[in-house]
Amino acid sequence: MQNGNNFEIEEHAQTYYIQTFGCQMNERDTEILAGMLEQLSYSPSASIEKADIILINTCCIREKAESKALSQIGELKKFKNNNPHLIIGVCGCMAQQEEKAKEIMRSLPYVDFILGTHNIHELPDVVKKIWAEKQNYVLVWDQEKEIIENLPYKNKFSYKALVNITYGCNNFCTYCIVPYVRGRERSRQSEYILKEIRDMVNDGVVEIMLLGQNVNSYGKDFTEIEYDFSDLISDINEIEGLKRIRYMTSHPRDFNLKLIKTIAKCEKVCQHFHLPVQAGSDKILAKMNRGYTQETYLKLVDNIRKFNPNATITTDIIVGFPGETDEDFLETLNLVKKVKFDSAYTFVYSPRKGTPAANFPDQIPLAIKKERLQTLNQIINEHSREKSEQYLNKVYEVLVEGHSKNNDQMLSGRTESAKNVIFSGDDELIGKIVPVLITEAQTWILKGELQ
Ligand code: SAH
Ligand code: SF4
Ligand code: F3S
């Protein structure tokens, strides 16, 4: 390494450990951070304790996510005491908030650097500067710049991969911090996306997950060509060797008929629709700035089911948004009963400083929020169980992802509908798509037998 003062850095193979909080955007950023560290000759560390560089890739979507990340950073102090050469970096969405970045540097001075979400490509420079000067760095651009292509990456899995198609978000849902920490929406040029996927497929990837905060607004920012999400998935569908295309997340407001028909026609696109509804009451949906009503959402679900009869539909729901009355909450329950989601991520509203809803009147007491969450979850779980039972005694194509978390003698995989299936089989099946007969249905998992 270029600096003669850094003898101890070269003395043994340097290792890294990255702890990731939050969504797939962060997971993908972690793969890019890992790729850059490996270019600097770091290799993965088996444990956080032994690593020479630790990165905490943070999330701030809800207060809990932020406090988890902060307490993890707090834990690192003892590692630094044991190993003064340890480099500690904080990145991700929490780090992008100026106030939080300052607070971390002030109260946790053993953190060597902070990288905002728009600055991750600067990791190699920052690490080299720390080797040379042993200084602390805060690199947080307050605004996004042009997309930086061709960064290295180290994918976590050999058979499935995450692929960014848009960055940022322009929707400004009133509860959400993402537009403030991920910047304005920018679409990647399709050539880069297609090339990245082809490269991954050549390396053995069979399933890709296209990532964006609102994938179906892909291409809206192109000024010279007309090319949208439907066009993109049609082109990706042609890539030989690729077996499954997933995408996350789509916004109900922008899910048009062209897209529904394209998905029906593209055989590689999974018939799994994750359509965050957030609430059932039109009053709350308007206050959230979601841009649809219960009626238009239900119409969308009907259309999806009409063109894609095997569609599984999942969602995100927030309870206890400011001003949500019992009647409003009942509207959420009504909607849930009408749609019967296959599963749902449900959340208690968490005020995020800097977002409009944090200052709305009529904030709901935590006890009521929790009660509503419980009522909602009970209904959703019943539906999930019912939906699971529909899989019984049928054979499904399952992409084998590894060993079951609860029983490492068993394999675990996913159907096209993203349902988790546990069955017994050889390790060599990992990464392959195999037929499995479903013999037992639980709420969240299915058990089966390899055919
Ligand atoms: N871009 C995606 C989701 C981003 S965040 C979309 O629009 O659907 C994932 C989920 O977190 C959201 O769908 C929402 O249900 C939840 N969420 C976001 N902000 C929240 C907040 N302040 N409190 C509670 N849940 C929140
Ligand atoms: Fe947040 Fe709304 Fe953007 Fe999703 S669409 S990231 S919920 S602002
Ligand atoms: Fe969290 Fe940032 Fe994702 S706030 S949910 S990691 S975009």
From TrEMBL:
[4Fe-4S] cluster 1 binds at C23, C59, C93. Pfam families: Radical_SAM, TRAM, UPF0004. The keyword Manganese does not apply. InterPro entries: Elp3/MiaA/NifB-like_rSAM (IPR006638), Methylthiotransferase (IPR005839), Methylthiotransferase_CS (IPR020612), Methylthiotransferase_N (IPR013848), Methylthiotransferase_N_sf (IPR038135), MiaB_methiolase (IPR006463), rSAM (IPR007197), rSAM_horseshoe (IPR023404). Signal peptide: none annotated. [4Fe-4S] cluster 2 binds at C169, C173, C176. Residues 389-451 form the TRAM domain. Residues 14-132 form the MTTase N-terminal domain. One of its GO terms (molecular function) is 4 iron, 4 sulfur cluster binding. GO terms for cellular component: cytosol. Keywords: 4Fe-4S, Cytoplasm, Iron, Iron-sulfur, Metal-binding, S-adenosyl-L-methionine, Transferase, tRNA processing. Residues 155-386 form the Radical SAM core domain. Gene3D superfamilies: Methylthiotransferase, N-terminal domain, tm_1862 like domain. Its cofactor is [4Fe-4S] cluster. It is found in: Cytoplasm. Binds 2 [4Fe-4S] clusters. One cluster is coordinated with 3 cysteines and an exchangeable S-adenosyl-L-methionine. Its EC number is 2.8.4.3. It catalyses: N(6)-dimethylallyladenosine(37) in tRNA + (sulfur carrier)-SH + AH2 + 2 S-adenosyl-L-methionine = 2-methylsulfanyl-N(6)-dimethylallyladenosine(37) in tRNA + (sulfur carrier)-H + 5'-deoxyadenosine + L-methionine + A + S-adenosyl-L-homocysteine + 2 H(+). Monomer. Catalyzes the methylthiolation of N6-(dimethylallyl)adenosine (i(6)A), leading to the formation of 2-methylthio-N6-(dimethylallyl)adenosine (ms(2)i(6)A) at position 37 in tRNAs that read codons beginning with uridine. Belongs to the methylthiotransferase family. MiaB subfamily. This is tRNA-2-methylthio-N(6)-dimethylallyladenosine synthase. It comes from Desulfonispora thiosulfatigenes DSM 11270.
